[in-house]
Structures are given as C-alpha cells and as structure tokens.
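Why should sequence recovery work at all? Because a backbone constrains its sequence more than one might expect. Tight turns favour small or flexible residues, buried strands favour hydrophobic ones, and helices have their own preferences. The token representation captures these environments compactly. In the example below, the structure is given first.
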C-alpha cells in the first residue's frame, strides 16, 4: 500500500497561485464576490480620503474668515457625502458575506467529496487523517483562510490605493521625512511580524490541546458511550483529562500573551519616534510661514495615514502568505493522487447471470509499518456461484483477505484477478458495484428504513424491498413500526425516530445487501448480534438469499459453515486447510480440533 502523503514543510502552491485559485473558484461559483471586493476597497479609501480632508478644509475656511453659511454648507456637504459613502460601505460589508460563504461551502463540498471517494487505504493512514483535519479546520468558519482571504484581499486593495493617494498628498514635503516615515513603519512591521508569528509557529501545540478537548467533549456527549461511562465510572477520568489539558492550554495562552506585550512596547517606541520627527518638521514649517495651520493638520493626518497604509500593506501580504499555506493544504488534500484508478480505469458493467471468477495469484499483503505479512503468498480461486466460508482465529487474516477480494486494498505482492484480468485495470467504483456486503462495522443513516435499504430516494422498487426484508427476517418487525418502511431510524435528525437493536440492525444491513442485487455477496460475521433462533433462521435461508450469486462468508462459529460449498481455515495469513465441513472433520486436523472445542462448549452450556 503506497504512501503518497510524505509532505515537506514547503507548501506545494505559492501565495499567487492560491490567490489565483480562489479568484477562479469565486468566478465559477459567484462572480459578485470579486466585484464586491473591488467596490468595498474603493469606498473604504473614499471614506478615508474624505476624513483626511474634512478638518483641514473647514479649518482653512476659518482661516480665511468664510461666512457661517459657507461653513455650514461645506460641513453639510461633507456630512452628506460621508453618510452616503458610509452607507454604501455598510451595505457592501453586509452583502459580501453570502457569496464568500458560498465559495467556502464549495470548498467544503470538495473536501467531503474527496473524503467519501478516496481510496480506502487513505482512510487508515494517520498522515491522511491529519491532512483531513487540517483541511476541515481551514474551512470550518468565517474566520478561516478559505473565507477570510477575501477580507485580506479587499484590505490589500484598499491599502495599496490609499498608499498611492496619501503618497501624492505628501509628495510636496521633504523627501527625508517620507524616508523616516517609511523606515520606521517597515521596521515596526518586521519586529511585530516576528513577534506576532509566535502563535502561528506554535499553532500545532495549540491545535493539539483544542483537538483533545473537543474529542473528550464529543465522546462525553456520545449516546453510544453513555452506558460505558456510567458502568466503568469514566466520568471523573474524563473530567481529569479535560482539566489537565485545559490547564496546559491556559499555560500556553499565558506564554503567548507575555510575548505579545513586546509588540505594544515596540509600537509605542516607533510611533513616538516617527510622530515626533513629523510633528517637529511640520511645526517648523508653520513657524516659518511655509504652510498654514490647515495644511499642517492635513499633512500631519496624512503622515499617520501613510504609516497605517504602509504597515497594513506589509501586514496584509504577511497574512495572505499564512492564509495561502492553509489554502495550499486544502488543495493538496483535494488534489491528492489516488493509488486506485477511478474515472481513468476501464469501465466494468455489473450483470447478473454472467459468471464472475475471483482469483488471487501469489498474493501477499503487509500493512504499512508492520514487520510481517498479514496475508502471505496466497493462491485462491473463488468459482462463479460458489458459497465460500472463511474461518480462523482472531488475527488469522480473514477480514484482510475479504478487503483484498473486494478491492479495498491492493496486494503488496501478487495479483487479484476478475475473470483473468487484474482488478487494478478497472474503474474501482465499477468494481465495487460487483459486491454486496454486510461488514462488522456498517453505516446506518438517520433516515427511514426504506432509504437505508435502497441507499437512494429515486426509482425505488418497494416490492423488492419487502422481499429483501422477508429474506432477512425483518419483515414482521418493520410492519409493526409506526410508519412501516417509512419509519425514521435514530433520533439525532428526527424526533420520531426509533432505535433498533443490534440484531435488527444486522438484519437491516442484510436486507440492504440483498437489495443491491450484486453478483457477489460478502458476509462478515452477519449473525454476530443475533440470538441462536434468529441465527439458525438466517442459515436456513442462506441458499435462498445467495441463489445465483458468489458468496463469501466469514464466521468464528464453525457450525455455521455447514451450508457452504467450501471452507478455508486461515492461520498466519495462509490457507491451512480447505474442504467441505464433512471433509475437514474427516481429516482430523486443526479445523476438526477447533470444531470439537466449540461443540464441547455448547454441550456444556446446555448441561449448565
């Protein structure tokens, strides 16, 4: 199983590539996001320019002793324009949210699609799971990179335009003053940048604390774990782990805040130096009669504004760089290479009645990091229509073998063939359609019984659903439910949902497997949660349920394999014994010994 998740610390995509990606995505999803960014930047600068000029203009009118009526007109004009600009800015700020959320939702959809369709080995890879967590973290709120980038881009456009306008205003002053302002602004930015990035450099530590606290919270509220928490007295233990983690995070926040104090100290020192020089220079010009009081006010405000634009531009690019790293991680996850072929593979059409043969040729499989094979040099042919049972002790490789047959894994060595062709050649989605299955772990959706069986809400054959429920032994139970097959399962989504027992859930999954009507059916301990009578009922119906199909049946109970055409006893990833139930008993080997142990257990149980 190849590992394609060896990421270096350097992002795959740079800041400009990720910015272009987001702009293209917005153009495809909702173009108004881009237009509103441009408009918001323009009107923000317009407001700043108006605020820069309003006081100097009024003071200038006072200096030339304009009439009260003229002053009121100017003040009224500025007020009306400022109100209009402010109103437009507020409108834009409110309405940009919807499009930005839609673009971020599109990214979330891409993440979910990748997660639901990715090759199965990825789901068991720790590195993949970490990348999933980071991808979702970068898209789970308005403040995260996949949405916040629009605020950053808007601010950058605003700051660059403001910088140009304020530079033109100050261009008539001494160039040395502009150099001092520029140098102190840039110096302040880089010092603050180093300090402010402390949290980003330590964000993995912070993420570890919050992830652990979230995990404890989720499990403490998990209804399925409620009984264990009470029976085993886990409440105090969970609280203790949570409290210790919370204390560690508090210590982390304290360290962070102590570091941030220096940011404020640097800001004060540089601001004092910058404003002191500018103030001294401008006062000197006023005293020399070179500029008026109104011009002094204009230039001094422009100096402060110019400093803000410079700092904000640098901060904006720094923030855009950090957001780009998160967006790059999201893209790397969405675009991750797959070990299996999907759309690029050969098409494979499922057809009932066509004989399908599965063959394993010299197949070995070893999990990543394991020291030995779970399946070793196995050769096996599953004939069309055969009822094959796989038995063995825990760790023998039964479930791994089934996952190889179903195409969830590719062999480390050897080949898995379908009618003589390596399954790697096929579209893996098409190959999955060849199988129906009941696994030990299964997914039940918070919807009704009908849709849990059909896995769709379109073109449903209700008569077939009823037949499958009857074969699975669940028909009478479903008929007794409040709304029959339309009764909801679970109570997380629907208040009128019902809870099914473990045995009923297994029967429901069996009905789902039968409804799919695939040419091959896999049953991994399908009766583990059933009582003996219900289990026997399933065995009696097994031939009927699997008629015309190839079936693979995994069980720990050797007595349940009597109805199968062939039994494989696995041990240490190899086929130790092979034959029918009677043949294996006659051999008096490992199968017979295990059967004897289980038989005695059941006999002792009856005597007791």
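From this structural description, the recovered sequence reads:
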């Amino acid at each position: 199983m190849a590992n394609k998740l060896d990421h270096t610390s350097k992002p795959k995509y740079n800041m400009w590539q990720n910015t272009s990606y987001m702009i293209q995505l917005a153009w495809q999803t909702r173009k108004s996001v881009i237009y509103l960014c441009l408009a918001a930047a323009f009107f923000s600068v317009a407001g700043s320019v108006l605020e820069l000029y309003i006081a100097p203009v009024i003071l200038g009118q006072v200096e030339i002793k304009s009439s009260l009526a003229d002053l009121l007109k100017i003040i009224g004009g500025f007020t009306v324009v400022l109100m209009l600009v402010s109103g437009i800015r507020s409108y834009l700020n409110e309405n940009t949210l919807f499009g930005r959320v839609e673009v971020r939702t599109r990214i979330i959809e891409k993440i979910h699609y990748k997660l639901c369709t990715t090759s199965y080995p990825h789901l068991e890879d720790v590195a993949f799971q970490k990348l999933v967590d980071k991808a979702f973290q970068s898209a789970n709120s308005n403040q995260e990179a996949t949405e916040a980038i629009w605020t950053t881009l808007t601010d950058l456009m605003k700051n660059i335009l403001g910088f140009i306008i304020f530079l033109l205003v100050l261009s008539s002053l001494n160039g040395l003053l502009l150099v001092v302002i520029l140098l102190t602004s840039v110096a302040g930015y880089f010092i603050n940048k180093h300090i402010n990035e402390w949290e980003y450099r330590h964000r993995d530590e912070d993420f570890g604390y919050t992830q652990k606290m979230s995990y404890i919270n989720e499990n403490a509220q998990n209804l399925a774990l409620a009984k264990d928490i009470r029976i085993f007295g886990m409440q105090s233990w969970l609280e203790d782990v949570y409290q210790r983690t919370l204390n560690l995070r508090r210590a982390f926040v304290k360290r962070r805040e102590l570091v941030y104090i220096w940011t404020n100290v640097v800001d004060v020192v540089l601001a004092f130096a910058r404003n002191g020089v500018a103030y001294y220079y401008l006062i000197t010009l006023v005293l020399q009669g070179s500029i008026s009081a109104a011009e002094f006010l204009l230039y001094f405000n422009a100096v402060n504004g110019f400093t803000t634009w410079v700092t904000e531009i640098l901060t904006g690019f720094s923030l855009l760089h950090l957001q780009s790293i998160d967006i790059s991680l999201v893209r790397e996850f969405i675009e991750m290479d797959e070990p299996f072929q999907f759309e690029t593979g050969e098409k494979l059409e499922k057809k009932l009645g066509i004989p399908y043969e599965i063959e394993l040729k010299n197949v070995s499989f070893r999990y990543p990091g394991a020291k030995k094979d779970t399946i070793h040099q196995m050769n096996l042919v599953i004939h069309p229509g055969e009822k094959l049972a796989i038995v063995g002790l825990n760790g023998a490789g039964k479930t791994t073998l089934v996952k190889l047959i179903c195409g969830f894994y590719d062999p480390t060595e050897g080949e898995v063939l379908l009618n003589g062709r390596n399954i790697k050649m096929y579209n893996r989605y098409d190959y999955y359609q060849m199988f129906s299955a009941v696994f030990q772990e299964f997914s039940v959706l918070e919807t009704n019984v009908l849709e849990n069986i059909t896995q769709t809400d379109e073109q449903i054959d209700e008569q077939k659903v009823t037949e499958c429920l009857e074969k699975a032994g669940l028909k009478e139970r479903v008929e007794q439910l409040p709304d029959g097959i339309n009764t909801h399962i679970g109570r997380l989504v629907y208040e009128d949902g019902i809870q099914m027992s473990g045995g009923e859930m297994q029967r429901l999954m069996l009905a789902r497997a039968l409804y799919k009507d695939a040419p091959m059916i896999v049953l991994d301990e399908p009766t583990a949660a059933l009582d003996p009578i219900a289990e026997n009922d399933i065995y009696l119906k097994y031939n009927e349920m699997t008629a015309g199909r190839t079936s693979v049946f995994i069980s720990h109970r050797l007595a349940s394999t009597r109805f199968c055409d062939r039994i494989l006893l696995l041990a240490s990833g190899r086929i130790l014994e092979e034959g029918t139930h009677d043949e294996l008993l006659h051999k008096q080997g490992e199968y017979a010994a295990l059967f004897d142990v289980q038989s005695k257990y059941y006999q002792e149980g009856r005597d007791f």
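A few observations help interpret the result. The longest strand covers residues 358-365.
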